[in-house]
Amino acid sequence: MLLRQEYVKLQKKLAETEKRCTLLAAQANKESSSESFISRLLAIVADLYEQEQYSDLKIKVGDRHISAHKFVLAARSDSWSLANLSSTKELDLSDANPEVTMTMLRWIYTDELEFREDDVFLTELMKLANRFQLQLLRERCEKGVMSLVNVRNCIRFYQTAEELNASTLMNYCAEIIASHWDDLRKEDFSSMSAQLLYKMIKSKTEYPLHKAIKVEREDVVFLYLIEMDSQLPGKLNEADHNGDLALDLALSRRLESIATTLVSHKADVDMVDKNGWSLLHKGIQRGNCLLQRAAGAGNEAAALFLASNGAHVNHRNKWGETPLHTACRHGLANLTAELLQQGANPNLQTEEALPLPKEAASLTSLADNIYLQTPLHMAIAYNHPDVVSVILEQKANALHATNNLQIIPDFSLKDSRDQTVLGLALWSGMHTIAAQLLGSGASINDTMSDGQTLLHMAIQRQDSKSALFLLEHQADINVRTRDGETALQLAIRNQLPLVVDAICTRGADMSVPDEKGNPPLWLALANSLEDIASTLVRHGCDATCWGPGPGGCLQTLLHRAIDENNEPTACFLIRSGCDVNSPRQPGTNGEGEEEARDGQTPLHLAASWGLEETVQCLLEFGANVNAQDAEGRTPIHVAISSQHGVIIQLLVSHPDIHLNVRDRQGLTPFACAMTFKNNKSAEAILKRESGAAEQVDNKGRNFLHVAVQNSDIESVLFLISVHANVNSRVQDASKLTPLHLAVQAGSEMIVRNLLLAGAKVNELTKHRQTALHLAAQQDLPTICSVLLENGVDFAAVDENGNNALHLAVMHGRLNNIRVLLTECTVDAEAFNLRGQSPLHILGQYGKENAAAIFDLFLECMPEYPLDKPDADGSTVLLLAYMKGNANLCRAIVRSGARLGVNNNQGVNIFNYQVATKQLLFRLLDMLSKEPPWCDGSYCYECTAKFGVTTRKHHCRHCGRLLCHKCSTKEIPIIKFDLNKPVRVCNICFDVLTLGGVS
Ligand SMILES: [Zn+2]
Ligand SMILES: [Zn+2]
């Protein structure tokens, strides 16, 4: 462009230079009159422009009349020669543009030309120059125009140039046209004549026919056909360098008239391109672009044109697609009908997936990378229900028509994804079409290569709508998948409640277990699908459902739910009316271990696991609260053993519970609570059943008795804490109270706690003994103290009239005696029913420590009457002597007791029959001072009655009362400071003379 402008500028400069050269030449040759004359003449002529002077001609320019001069015009052009204009007065140029005309006139007079960047103006000027044979002006115009030529106006200038025979401009334009040939549009050629255009096309392209069609000039096409007549139809089927066919170009531009012309000249309607696309394919294909959907009808028309002009309707391209596929893919219903009418085969399947444009891929993933599609697959995949209807109608018509060549669509054909058209329609959500397909004979129960039915697939896709559709249309619900799953199991697994409902409504077997043995109801519950579970139950599904359990035993779903601690499931089953009372059972051949025989009801199991909600639910729904398992245990036994407080509370407060049921070990629930030291439950049980703690064992002992006897302080405290009765007696012959037992057991701690808890301190045994009596008999000084502190009646006597001191002495309990003698005012001289004081008891029962006890007595009671006889008249000395208790005798004698006192049978220590008198001798020998004299009516030795003749005498050594005969000897007793002979008895005489060792 710049170059061209540069060129034009140079041209202009050249013209000016030439003119100046002429002027200079004129001036330089002043000598030459002729040269000077020329330049003067040119100046005069220039001055005459538009001047009246010398004017001999008027020129009409527009509405104006310009004054002109014939000789000037004649000098410029032959057409204005003086001869031609001789009779002319006026020249009419009003038909031309006035401005252009004025420019021309000015140039004629002055040789001056004003260029304007206006191609129309210049063209006009050029035409005018041509008209009046102004060669110089035209040449200058041509050069001026060339600067303005471009792609858009080059054809117009070419035409003008040709018209004006302006070869320079024409060649220049032709060059531009040639270099921009492919950019030229049909509008650019619209004004060009057919002849000229054809000529130009022929000179510029190898394929004139294609170009003629591209610029939509049927007249040019005709010229081509006429010229090529001899080479037809071959030339019509040539492809251009783009591989395009003339007929295809015509069809693609919807130039039906040209297409018709081509076909009538035998263009081949079945030509195929390098990809195997036939014209028909391509005709249909042009509906491809979504943006051109609206234009689809036009393309359909093109294809209809081909179809009805005998194109092969079953041609397949390299992907195996027939025109019918393409028509179906693009939703061309009319074309589909026409193709079928023309014998298109609706059962051909594509061989390879079509490379899809991006917008189509996003349109439907169903179409992506699939092959083996029938046209009907295509129509459905691309969502063209009207096309589907056409095919279905065709099938109906073909079936009813006789003698029909149309091929009946096969609905069982599957695409590369194993989809039938019915499946495809369903997955595309085209249920109306699916219904139509079924109505037209599609099979609802076809299985895929993996054995699945459409129903299975719908469920697996979680496509409830399709599944329900299939069920409504009576799809077979009993077909299993290759894995053996039923439709019901699948529907549950895919969590489709409506589908489950529909399948159940159709009467599916709700008991078929899956491969793991889980029945449908369990599948639903295990996945927390309560709505589905409810549906199953509503349809009568068995909520109990016996099945295999641990070790091959039989169990219900409830057992299983409880075992898995799945409370929601357990409660659901209970509310659904399952068996709430049966324990597990052995299998049919006795399988199962402990579980099969433990006899535990669901309530036992739930109590054992601590499943509170489940227990509550079981109770609400009538589970037997008193059921006993194989061990005889009730649920509350189990709950207590497992220490589940809330459950214990629930069970205890149940109106029907029996709290006295014993298990095999004889334990009541209370006993159980004791065993597990469960205060709360024991208390709860006692509150409900006040006698629960009083239940006794086979020995008549209640829990407190046993605990006390076992010195089980913990249990005692436990029972005290739950307010067990601390005064109830053992129900046996002895009828002891807990306090008695505690004393017997010797537990100070228990005694104290029982007393603190309100045990009565003075309760008596059947032998009328108090706890103190009992304590006194054992070596329990502290307990004696405790009892005394707590106000025990120390004076109480038992059935033998013994007080506690009697018994303490009888059993030689020195420590007890000290407590009794020092911490209370027990009567130490009291006689029991046998007429014995504690000291007599000591004499009779005393053991090794008897002397110590005796000493203790005298220590505490120095004035104790040592010689007081018992009911038999025996003194403690006589009793001790008769028992042979030497130590005690010595202690008594040392304390100054009388020696020879007789009892009621006349027995005393002197006459008591013993093997040896050695003890007597020793006692006498040890006398250190004169003992108190005895008194009486008879001689202690010979029992002679004293009277007037028989006088009373005393042995001064032993103090006995004797007759004269029995105390004849006299001897001084040095140890008594009796230095003169005094009366002694025979024994004393021997002792005093022989010593204590005789
Ligand atoms: Zn005598
Ligand atoms: Zn004597």
Automatic annotation (TrEMBL):
Molecular function GO terms recorded: zinc ion binding
Domain FYVE-type: 933-993
Pfam families, sorted: Ank_2 (PF12796), BTB (PF00651), FYVE (PF01363)
Highest taxon, organism lineage: Eukaryota
ANK repeat locations: 319-351, 371-403, 450-482, 483-515, 598-630, 699-731, 734-766, 767-799, 800-821, 872-904
Gene3D superfamilies from the UniProt entry: Ankyrin repeat-containing domain (1.25.40.20), Potassium Channel Kv1.1, Chain A (3.30.710.10), Zinc/RING finger domain, C3HC4 (zinc finger) (3.30.40.10)
Protein name according to UniProt: Ankyrin repeat and FYVE domain containing 1
UniProt organism field: Rhinopithecus roxellana (Golden snub-nosed monkey)
